[in-house]
Amino acid sequence: MNNRQIMSLLDKDTRNKNFEEVALGFNLSQVHIEASRCLDCKDPRCVKACPVNINIPKFIKEILDKDYEKAYQTIYEDNILPSVCGRVCPQENQCEGSCILGIKYQPVAIGALERFLGDYSLKNDCCIDEHIVDNHDKVCVVGSGPAGLSFAASIRRLGYTTHVYEALHDFGGVLRYGIPEFRLPKSVVDKEIHRLESLNIEFFKNVIVGKTLTIKQLQEEYKYKAIFIASGAGLPNSLNIKGENLNGVYYANEFLTRVNLMKAYDFPNHPTPVKVGDNVCVVGGGNVAMDAARVAKRLGSKNVFILYRRNMDALPARKEEIHHAIEEGIEFKLLLNPVEIYGENYQVNSIKAQVMRLGEKDQSGRQKPMPTDDFITIDIDSCIIAIGQSPNPIIKNHTENLITDQKGRITVKDCETSIPGVFAGGDIVTGAATVIEAMGAGKCAAQQVDDYIKNTFH
Ligand code: FAD
Ligand code: SF4
């Protein structure tokens, strides 16, 4: 059995000073060695573990036959964003986590193979001639993140006239404004979204549903037979401590949006700089915290550290992202919980944190952080808060009878909300999750919407 192939990375001391992509992908020889490791299982567990159920053994066999275009088409049937997912999916918990080879050896690098095929198709402009028979029923999508895009493609393939409304001035949701360029180049996002336009899906930007147009208007005036809400979880959670409103304190979403969407790293070519200073504290231990820390480093900060209330083993971020952050010089200050942010002349200058110890295990199975009597104060120039996101309440606040739970997530049954004909999926339903889970929700909702329209109107 060949060893699992290792993807080349940009040198750590070079990459932490620029925004170029870190992981360089497999070369053709690696692709074939890796594909040859697949056992072509009779009952492939990887397929079940993939939230959009890509036929993994089939596309791997097509790679071995050197029919890359066909292999790409096999993926594209179930996943319209293979170049994106090949890069950002936490495969270790999904397809690769279930690969039978992982029991004795290392699992097949399914994500890297998917990325290869996605990139191959973009580079070679592989075009998929999908024969769609229009049924002239109109549906719309609120939000152009992975859930909205996946829904739009699936419902359009069933013949529906499909319109996507997006609040921002560009499409892709977190793929566009959250995940940094060095993990997911925006040219890849552009090309994969552009391909959807060839399905005749229409996109409308700068439309905030709930403000520019209400759900009621979409139903009654615009006559959409069904609406799919995929507005994500873009509202940052706050620490609720003193000093959080000082200058130099950012929420990770705002910080990453300024850098990714507004291209703050390319000042003065883009007129929205973001000032971080030499010493940056990032509060939180998830993927968003790792992204924010690595971006701050690339913006030129000398000392960037993660402040986290548990220990290294409990960090919720992907192991790979933690590893890359350490390589790039990010420091970890652990078992510390922020209690106050200090400043002078409205500008942050230090953060006070309580020293924690680990207690009994909590519901998450991790040891609970317990406060001690000790505190430390650390000098900083800026602070980025990355402790999770919640759904934005705009739609809920402007839509009568739309039921949400205590956390503001839309309540659904078989993807349908409390309002007939209005469906929802992705982070707005589950809370912050993953790209491919959001895409799975979009795909599933398309089937439910099709059933609903056929049963209600035909
Ligand atoms: P979103 O991607 O949030 O898209 C929602 C869209 O709806 C946005 O474009 C928003 O502008 C729009 N919208 C909101 N309100 C309205 C409105 N009222 N009217 C019109 N449009 C509206 N997951 C991974 O799998 N791998 C990763 O590596 C990863 N890294 C991440 C890094 C960061 C910094 C963040 C924040 C998240 C990351 N995630 C990652 C999580 C993943 O991106 C999300 O789970 C996924 O994007 C959710 O998809 P969605 O379509 O539900 O929502
Ligand atoms: Fe191949 Fe692993 Fe899937 Fe089996 S589980 S088909 S070995 S990728």
Give structural attributes:
458 residues; alpha/beta; Fumarate Reductase Iron-sulfur Protein, Chain B, domain 2; FAD/NAD(P)-binding domain; 3 domains; five-stranded parallel sheet; 34% helix; binds flavin-adenine dinucleotide; binds iron/sulfur cluster
Question: How big a fraction of the residues is strand?
Answer: 15-25%
Low-confidence stretches are none
Determine the structural class based on helices, strands and strand pairing.
alpha/beta
Largest sheet: 5 strands, parallel
Q: Report the CATH architecture of the largest domain.
A: 3-Layer(bba) Sandwich
Q: Estimate the helix proportion, in percent.
A: 25-40%
Question: What does the average pLDDT come to?
Answer: 95
- Coarse shape: globular
Helical region count? 18
* CATH fold-level assignment of the largest domain: FAD/NAD(P)-binding domain
- The counted number of beta strands is 15
Terminal-residue CA separation = 56 Å
Radius of gyration, in angstroms, nearest whole number:
23 Å
For CATH, the homologous superfamily of the largest domain is named as: FAD/NAD(P)-binding domain
Bound molecules: flavin-adenine dinucleotide, iron/sulfur cluster
Total discrete domains: 3
